[in-house]
Amino acid sequence: MHILVPFTMIAAFALPANANAHWPGPGDIVAPNASGLTLTSADESPRSNIPFGSPFHSTMHALVSIYGNEVTVGFLQECGEGPLVYVRIPGQIDLMFQNDRLSGWILSDDTALQTPSGLGVESPRANLAIEGDVEFFDTSIGTEFNAGELFGLLSEDGATLQAIWLGTTCIFR
């Protein structure tokens, strides 16, 4: 009996302080925002944030728990901002890392992810007004926009959003 008490005390102190805290997993929702990424549970309960500046390893550990490990990692050496590491999570989001820290995100292709204001790929162009003043400009890749803190690209017909990005990116024009 006397041995059980000290063992119980040691075991209690050995448990992590947040042992019952939520860890990201399938069904959680990732929302890109102006400060990085926000994670919520499937019932939309707030869980945690992954702010810009978060380390590569912890960011990927959380996201792989949600999306699985089918990711593509590449290295972009010729970017204006300096070398970047990009991670493509197919059908979800592209992430940019600089100096091992989350520095930007891009929504494109077939993603269903949206910004907190509800903007996503294939959103109508008119929805950009949610972000405030909008500027449009033609570049070698098409009609780009700047809406508040967001940047992006319109579809060829100019009716919908084809891509949205924020933070450090490497887009060749």
Blueprint of the fold:
Elements: H1 4-14, E1 29-33, E2 36-40, E3 46-51, H2 56-67, E4 72-76, E5 84-89, E6 93-98, E7 101-108, E8 134-139, E9 142-147, E10 150-154, E11 161-167
Antiparallel strand pairs: 1-2, 2-3, 4-5, 5-6, 6-7, 7-11, 8-9, 9-10, 10-11
Question: Can you offer a commentary on this structure?
Answer:
- By secondary structure, the protein is mainly beta.
- The strands form two sheets. The chain has an eight-stranded antiparallel beta sheet with strand order 4-5-6-7-11-10-9-8, covered by helices on one side. Strands 1-2-3 form a three-stranded antiparallel beta sheet, covered by helices on one side.
- It folds into two domains: 25-109, 2-Layer Sandwich (Beta-lactamase Inhibitory Protein, Chain:B, domain 1); 114-166.
- It is built from two helices and eleven strands, in the order αβββαββββββββ.
- The N and C termini lie far apart (73 Å).
